[in-house]
Amino acid sequence: MAKRRQLYEGKAKVIFEGPEPGTVVQYFKDDATAFNNKKQGTITGKGVLNNRISEYLMVKLADIGIPTHFVRRLNMREQLVREVEIVPIEVVVRNIVAGSLAKRFDMPEGTPLPRSIVEYYYKSDELDDPMISEEHITAFGWATPQDMDEIMSMSLRINDFLVGLFLGIGIRLVDFKLEFGRVYEEDQMRLILADEISPDNCRLWDKDTNEKLDKDRFRRDMGNVEGAYQEVARRLGILPESGPGDIPGTDTMQ
Ligand code: UDP
Asked: What is the share, in percent, of the chain residues with pLDDT greater than 90?
């Protein structure tokens, strides 16, 4: 394959110049990091599985009218996505207490929340992704109040849809992180869902046993991380019997 220009390398993905203007190639690595890079490792086959899982979820979300950056999967580890200007905010939606929320309020993990909580964090490795409010976001000019209304309403719709989708395969969607990007069309700015949705940025617990099927297995050294990611793909119906080495593609253009 011809050498492509690398535009950006993150912790779990590399972004290359795309074949058409306004597109980039998102390459999924097996690298895993946690606690702001303090813990590093690899999860064999993770990139292949996340590429496929994120494709599947983004296509389903597009079907219900959520605009996403996903264009089509290119191969086992790469997908073509729309080039966006990333809004430097991590949107976390929570349905059940876990992780940093459990710590902050000294609450037991697993406590269901009477209503979903949406939190915002500023994307900055140097600052350790500090939690922020809409006041900070609008005062510092990262997004306008109108942008935030759109981000909030898309995030809640995504949550409602994904909660149902995962429950249908016996999985509780505990919490997850989203990122949004800006695209410009005929002088109009539009916000679309970007990044990825995968067990790297969701907490997924088996509905009956509460077994963790996500990156917490890596963060907490619980073992069988690959198996957990594979199980999510298997339940979504996208992991062939032969394993992650042989995943058929779909060609979904938006
Ligand atoms: N999350 C993420 N990237 C981050 C921080 C959090 O994808 O930089 C996800 C994480 O996987 C979980 C949710 O957001 O599904 C909430 O994470 P939390 O704030 O509890 O932080 P953590 O305990 O993961 O540090």
From this structure: 92
Mind listing the pLDDT tens digit for each residue in 226-239?
999 999 999 999 98
Q: What's the rounded Cα separation, in Å, for the pair 210 and 213?
A: 9
Pocket test for ligand 1, best of 100, 122, 125, 217 (most atoms within 8 A of CB): 100
Residue ranges, CATH 3.30.470.20, the chain: 85-206
Instruction: Decide: 196 in ligand 1 pocket, CB within 6 A.
Output: no
123: left (phi over 0), alpha (psi -120 to 50) or beta: beta
DSSP 64-110: TT--BSEEEE-SSSEEEEE--EE-SEEEEEEEE--HHHHHHTT--TT
Q: Which residue is closest in CA terms to ligand 1's atom 11?
A: 201
Please, which residues have CB within 8 angstroms of residue 132's CB and are 6 or more apart in sequence? 89, 120, 121, 122
Structure pTM?
Answer: 0.94
Q: Check whether 241 has a pLDDT greater than 70.
A: no
Q: Which fold has domain 85-206?
A: D-amino Acid Aminotransferase; Chain A, domain 1 (3.30.470)
Pocket test for ligand 1, best of 177, 198, 216 (most atoms within 8 A of CB): 177
Fold (topology level) of 6-84+223-236: Phosphorylase Kinase; domain 1 (3.30.200)
Tell me what percent of the residues of the chain surpass a pLDDT of 70: 93
Q: Which of 185, 168, 174 is nearest to 213 (CA)?
A: 174
Q: Cα 182 vs. chain centroid, distance in angstroms?
A: 17
Phi, psi torsion values for 200, nearest 5 degrees: -70, -30
Q: Cα(241) to centroid of ligand 1, in Å?
A: 31
212 in contact with ligand 1, CB cutoff 6 A = no
